[in-house]
Amino acid sequence: MKTTIDAAGRIVVPKALRDAMGLTAGRTIDMVFTDGRIEIELAPVEVELQASGRLPRLVAGDDQPELTDQQVRDALEATRR
Q1: What digits encode the pLDDT tens for the residues 45-75?
Q2: What pTM was computed for the model?
């Protein structure tokens, strides 16, 4: 896909790519320049392990978008393949 860089140096990420990566406004990303390419990855999220109750759980340090039922189903299916 082609896109352009504006005068301020901003790059528009086409909607199809944003949707495929789960990118939303305000989402933190990591960008690196490697072997002549710009690579974009979702930035890791800092989490804390909370062991209260019967089962431990991970809690994100920053606000994160809520997962939809479909996203959870898709992730489960992807790990089963």
Answers
A1: 889 999 988 899 888 887 777 888 998 898 8
A2: 0.57
What does the domain layout of the chain look like in residue ranges? 15-80
Straight-line distance from the first to the last Cα atom of the chain, in angstroms, rounded to the nearest whole number: 28
Classify burial at 40, counting beta carbons within 10 Å of its beta carbon; exposed 0-12, middle 13-18, buried 19 or more: middle
The pair of three-digit structure tokens given for residue 36, joined into one six-digit string: 């002549």
Distance in angstroms (rounded) separating the CA atoms of residues 18 and 27: 11
The token duo for 72 is 């959870």
pLDDT tens column, 30-42: 999 999 999 999 8
Q: Please state, in angstroms and rounded to a whole number, the distance separating the CA atoms of residues 37 and 59.
A: 34
Residue found under tokens 């804390």: 48
